[in-house]
Design a protein that fits this description.
Chain lengths: 239, 141
């Protein structure tokens, strides 16, 4: 386990008639025990630059990145030096607050995840060399007449939004991020796939089972106040 | 104006191999968009019991909307399984386990944006401080 110490110091000589000066420290542990957190995103610096207000926000951390209900901690700092510039920090749709120039935040994060959409597509019929199946922008072209070999080719691809596993001719697709992908609703057909059956040999790729996903409701979203360049420093400590 | 300084130090010698983590940040708590320091503070300590259920730590008010308030909260429980769940209105932020603390901006984007705390597992003594701008005084019931 790692030992991570976090200390906050708050002080003021003129806010009250009595000096305000206190400090609190903690060792970052996993949920409900004294074992230290061991994983981190690493310290990062993200630039925000866009002339399009609608696209200026970024998801800094997805709930998928950490354990739901873990003792995850998030550090954020606005690196701007212009007093009026701020980042608005959201947990999903709920606004937490505005980080003005130089401000930082450090807070626990439950990372409440949704569910990953999943479906099983099973290669059936007779496949010919040159037949193909396209999904998620990836085209798999058969190099064999063996249906299981083609399924293996499909499984070997690297899909932008899905991971795969295989059992004989059945390939299980699992979304990389929890959301309502809209590809399946139960066991209905895939939305957006393309199948080419050169020899018209009843080669098909039907969904044989599936489950729709639900979106996460804890992604950390950050929106800069201006479209000119702004930098955010951030780090996630997680389970 | 007042000058209130908040500093954080995060360190670890064994989290990342070959990279000593020594993160330090400091800020002077200013009013929204200004270089004028926050001048008001509310702080206290209490004990939250499981029976209390969801409890409002602080209500958002009209005068505080879009301000630059800062919130400090620390769970002073010693049983490592006891935690305080912090919600922003109806959204879960996270679990503050025994000894953990947080420091967040709270801009009160609308008057439903209250801070809600709940003790889970057992009673949690806690302390808090809110550095704030104005707030609307709510009439008693």
């Amino acid at each position: 386990m790692a030992t991570i110490n976090a200390t906050l110091t708050l002080s003021s000589g003129d806010l009250l008639t009595s000096n305000l000066a206190f400090s609190v420290g903690s060792t970052l542990s996993k949920a409900g025990n004294s074992t230290g957190l061991e994983q981190t995103s690493g310290l990062s610096r993200t630039n925000f630059l866009s002339t399009d207000p609608a696209s200026r926000s970024k998801i800094i951390y997805r709930a998928d990145d950490a354990a739901t209900n873990g003792a995850n901690k998030v550090y954020l700092k606005n690196l701007s030096t212009t007093a009026a510039e701020f980042f608005t920090v959201y947990i999903d749709q709920e606004e937490m607050g505005r980080l003005y120039a130089g401000d930082f935040a450090f807070f626990p994060w439950s990372a409440t995840q949704g569910t990953l959409e999943t479906f099983v597509v099973t290669a059936t019929g007779t496949v010919a060399v040159g037949d193909s199946w396209t999904f998620d922008g990836i085209t798999t072209t058969s190099t064999s007449t063996a249906i299981n070999t083609f399924a293996g080719q499909v499984d070997n691809e690297h899909y932008p939004n899905w991971t795969t596993s295989i059992s004989t001719a059945a390939v299980t697709f699992t979304a990389r991020h929890a959301s309502v992908n809209g590809v399946v609703t139960g066991t209905t057909a895939i939305t957006g796939d393309t199948l080419v059956d050169l020899a018209d040999s009843n080669f098909t790729m039907p969904i044989t089972s599936g489950a729709a996903g639900t979106r996460s409701e804890a992604d950390i979203v950050v929106l800069p106040s201006v479209a000119t360049t702004m930098d955010l420093e951030h780090m996630l400590f997680k389970q | 104006m007042a000058t209130t300084t908040a500093s954080v130090s995060i360190s670890s010698s064994d989290l990342q191999v070959g990279n000593q983590l020594a993160l330090n940040a400091s800020t002077t708590c200013m009013k929204a968009g200004l270089t004028t320091g926050l001048e008001k503070i509310e702080m206290g300590k209490n004990t939250l019991t499981v029976a209390d259920g969801s409890t409002s730590l602080k209500l958002a008010t009209t005068a505080g909307v879009d301000g630059a308030s800062k919130v400090y909260l620390c769970n002073n429980a010693t049983d490592e399984t006891f935690y305080i769940r912090l919600d922003l209105h109806d959204t879960i932020v996270g679990r503050l386990y025994a000894g953990d603390w947080l420091f967040i901006p709270w801009s009160q984007n609308d008057t439903t944006n209250e801070l809600v705390i709940q003790a889970i597992g057992g009673s949690c003594p806690y302390e808090y401080a809110i550095f704030k701008e104005d707030e609307t005084v709510v009439a008693g019931a």
